[in-house]
Structure formats: structure tokens, C-alpha cells
Amino acid sequence: MLNESLSGSLVALITPMRPDGAIDWPALDALIDWQIGEGTNGIVPVGTTGESATLSVDEHLQVVAATVKRVAGRVPVVAGTGANATSEAIHLTRQAEEAGADACLSVVPYYNKPTQEGLYRHFMTIADATALPVVLYNVPPRTACDMQPATVGRLATHERIVAIKEACGDAERVGELVKVVPDDFVILSGEDAQTLRMMELGARGTISVTANVVPRLMAEFCAAFLAGDRQKAGALDARLQPLHKALFVEPNPQPAKWALHEMGRVDTGIRLPMIELSEAARPALLRCLKDIGALA
Question: How far is residue 100 from each of residues 1, 65, 69, 95, measured CA to CA in Å?
Fold first, then answer.
């Protein structure tokens, strides 16, 4: 069952680009191999961190296909396929299914501000249109719409809606979700700095931005918690907290892409309206990278 493998540290993977904004396919392959070698439990391409908002539909689907091919079954691939038009989300999801993704990550529709009933119908329609397991994604700071636990509970009755990435900003939301979803429904953190508390309340892991930069530490942190070693998990979380903060000093993925460039893993490309990390924000992030051992 996919539900059982949706745990630990899944990386919300950046989409590496050349300075002109073209996708850097060799760098994508190298990032995937590095992530898996460092212990990452799953790859999540073309979500927010992967700049899905500024990729064309063709590019979006090409990144999913390239990721599936490179991963080659080593870990689950949860393809970002969300859209604020239900028809477009269905198209992306069906294409991800054809490419061989293991599941899809479908974000709450942004800008439209649908009602809870609208959200329910949106996700049920997507789940009815595909054979892929669906991971819901609630991130109201970006979508201006907060999917409530009661709605998630209704959606969790669908056999293909199997998980949620929760990023509402309140870790205590996990406790509310646990009360309304089946035991095998997976809750994943979408807020790196809150992951420890969310796992204490019942989350099984994270879809992480920070894992782009320190995949082994994020994997070790999640593994320690899931193995019952709360002391080790707490110590690793304390070590990671300054980096979590630094990676969100400007809108994601600006800090993460700059960090990976400094680490020699990607070029400088990022697409407008995202821009390179500001000069003012760089010293603090650089210190965090050095303190945590990501840079010499």
C-alpha cells in the first residue's frame, strides 16, 4: 500500500534552471540521485518549491516524466498536479499517471477562494478521474483558502484520497485532523519548523523544503522520531531550526535555490517573479549552511 510508504522525509524538490531560466535536466538528475543517496524517502516534483506556477504545462509534465524516469522506482514520486481550475488539475493528474508517478499532490485551488463544498467537489472530481492516489495540500498563506478538517474528513472517505500535506501554519491542526480521518490516512507536515510538533500529534513525516539542502539530516530526524527515539529527534530538530528559519527569510524557493547554488549543486536560474536571494539575506543563510555542515 502506498499509504505505508508515505512517511519520513519527502523532499519538495526545486526545479534547477540555467541563468536564462531553461530547465537544467542534468542537474535535475543529479539532485534526484543525491537525494535518494542521502536517505530521502520520496520525491515531490513541481510543487510550489518546484516553481510550478511559472512552468508551462508542457514543462511541468516533462519534469514529472524526467523525475519518474530517474527515480526508477527507488522511492515514491508524488507529482505536483494542482491547479485552480478543476479541469486543468485533472489533465495534469492524468498525465502524471501516464508518466508513472506513484501519487499526486493536489493543492487547494488558489485565487478563486472556493467554499468548503466547492473544495469537496473539486477534489472528489479529481479523485474520480484518475487511478492515482491523491495527496491533498492545504496551504492557506498561498491560496487564500483554508480547507477545514471537516472537509478533509469527508474527502478521506474516497478510496484514492489517502493523505494531506498540512501547511495552515498551526501545528495543532494535526490533532483536529486525526479525529476526523481513518487510521490509515496519512498526515504530512508542510511546515518544516513545525514538523516535530506535528509528528507528536500524529503526522507521519514531512514534505520538506529544508530537505533540498540537508536531505540526510531531515531523513535522520524523521527516522529517529518514527523509531521512537524522541531525544534524538528533538536534538536534530533543534539543530535544524535556524536553517528552517533562514530558508524562509524570503519567499520559497529563493533561499533554497541560492543555498544549493552556493553548495555547487545548481546554477543560478530562477523565474520571474521569483528572483535570486537578496544580498542582505545571504550572510545569515550562509552562516546557517556552515553551522549545519552543508558548506565548509
Answer: 16, 8, 8, 9
